[in-house]
Amino acid sequence: MILLTTPTGDIGHRVLARLLAADTPVRVIARDPSKLAPDPRIDVVEGSMSDAATIARALPGVTGVFWLPPGDPSLPSADAAYSGVSQAFCTALPRSAVTHVVGISALGRGWPKPAGQVTATLAVDDMIAQTGVHYRALACASLMDNIARQSDPIRTLGRFFQPTPGNLKLPHVAKGDVARIAADLLLDLNWAGAEERPLLGPEDLSFDEMAAIMSEVLGREIAAVELTMAQFGQMMRDLGASDGMAQAYVEMFTAKNEGMDHLVAPSSRRDTPTTFRMWCEAELRPLIEG
Q1: Which option is the CATH number for 2-143+173-200: 3.60.40.10, 3.50.50.60, 3.40.50.720, 3.30.950.10?
Q2: Exposed, middle or buried by CB within 10 Å (0-12, 13-18, 19+), for 108?
Q3: Which of 55, 169, 271, 272 has its C-alpha lying 20 to 30 A from 107's C-alpha?
Q4: pLDDT of residue 166
Q5: Considering just the CA atoms, what is the radius of gyration of the chain in Å?
Q6: Contacts of 76 (CB under 8 A, 6+ apart)
């Protein structure tokens, strides 16, 4: 049986759909099961993935786990949102039947400065690997789908906002590609050891280039607007982030602007083929026009 966390999240629900399509026995941890579409094939454990009792109820009979802390922005720090949420799981792993874990991580291994959520995510990778299970950390570039969170200003203002120079090229990967790779790993557990697998997307793009692509796909002018880090931090606080989490977001984007996502050479990008244009046509345009 495969245990899935964040089953209603942007990546988790895609992984869940692929596992169900393959007729794989699936158990999920859900804080609010009412957000899941009723499906008799899913064994639902209600509770928090940070709770030891919930983990104890979820692990029996499980051999593979999809682990993704949701990064709750209301928690006091990135460490609390990632390592804190993962502690009960890592404590329980050595006494369980789990042999393989797939986690969603980030590029940035070896970055010498604080990088907010990335630093915290890499710490979780280390925690899981140290339990002795076979582990694959899917080290993702920035997720292009996150732009969909700005559908309102894109629709009403023709703008989206980033704390990044408009001409800075960065790697971007689609969540659909990430979910497919995660599901493939969970469906075939014939791999061993603890490794990071960089997922870079098919090409580096600047936000100005992404705005031009959005303009072509949507048939109207879209512009990328650069925020200062101070403006960005305040925006995250206005959206409900704690002071500690807002600072972590600032640290993460500062590190990306300074080159953190380019520490890994793009040896192969064939496994993440979704281009930003393809994503805009398939997902952003229906969202904006709908």
Answers
A1: 3.40.50.720
A2: buried
A3: 55
A4: 96
A5: 19
A6: 242, 244, 245
